[in-house]
Amino acid sequence: MDSATIKCVVVGDGAVGKTCLLISYTTNAFPEEYIPTVFDNYSAQTSVDGQIVSLNLWDTAGQEEYDRLRTLSYPQTNIFVICFSIGNPSSYANVRHKWHPEVSHHCPNVPVLLVGTKRDLRNDIETVKKLKEQNHCLKLSNMLILEKHFICDSWVFPVLACSSHS
Questions:
Q1: Model confidence pLDDT, tens digit, residues 96-117
Q2: What is the DSSP string of 79-137?
Q3: Is pTM, for the whole model, over 0.85?
């Protein structure tokens, strides 16, 4: 059976759920506490059309103080996953203002997959209350409409492997 390797770099604001997404996918376990990531690497294998695909998943820091360090992981990337939190409109705004420009600048021809995380927070009373107080209700509503097109759980990375490899 043939094999291929795909390098996937995951970016987004700090605390949007990048590490949780990767740990959940690679170990089937959900991390209970938040530990900020500077840089980490995960790997997984999947099969696409009878071919084994090895996924090298690069977890990056979203905090501004790591901007220079983060971009060192970009060379030879096959696909980027840009994450934002459903419950944090500023993380979605940063997709346009920071993340997409950054990856497009460093890797202009590399595909990008947009992933909305923490969709469970859309029903969280405290999160909705906080968003109402910050006058983000309409933004949240618009994000939830967008989120319907990007519902991502454990299928994200096999789909990514298929689309990135084709």
A1: 999 999 999 999 999 999 998 9
A2: EEEEEEETT-HHHHHHIIIIIHHHHHHH-TTS-EEEEEE-GGGGG-HHHHHHHHHTT-H
A3: no
